[in-house]
Amino acid sequence: PAALHLNARTDRDWNRWRDYLAARAEVTHVAFEFATGAGFAVRMAWHLEKLVGLAATVGRPLHLIMRGGTKLLPVLTRAFADITLLDTSVFMKTASRQRAFLSAPGVVSWRSSRTKKTETVDSLLTENWQVVAAAFAGPLKQRLLPLQACG
Q1: Sequence-separated contacts (24+) of 72-80 with Cβ below 8 Å
Q2: pLDDT for 50-93, tens place per residue?
Q3: End-to-end C-alpha distance for the chain, whole angstroms
């Protein structure tokens, strides 16, 4: 199984993806990233419009795998059957000894969290994932899966 990365920068690109996906029922997952070029404010709204339009015209539910663009989740969760959000910020903030907290409903903020030189950040990472998951789970009524340690 694979998710097709929707690399589209023009209306014609989006039309081609729409036609391709509509003709191939075996494609159930697509991927898009808002972390670089598509994340610029000028382009973000345009890409959001194109993604929502694509999901509406393909003729079947699609699963979106996305990177970045978390503020677009409320709109995208209505357009796509399922969404997987790839986010490294929790890991990176934890590695920098930052602790997550909810500064308002659904809003995650960070503060410094000192540790001893010999102390691991495992429990901080778990706690941070729980705070971030709670922020997303409430307003969006969806779950974020906790990071699983490897090896």
Answers
A1: 72/34, 72/44, 72/48, 73/136, 73/140, 74/139, 74/140, 75/48, 76/48, 76/51, 76/52, 77/140, 77/142, 79/51, 79/52, 79/55, 80/55
A2: 999 999 999 999 999 998 888 888 899 999 999 998 878 899 99
A3: 24
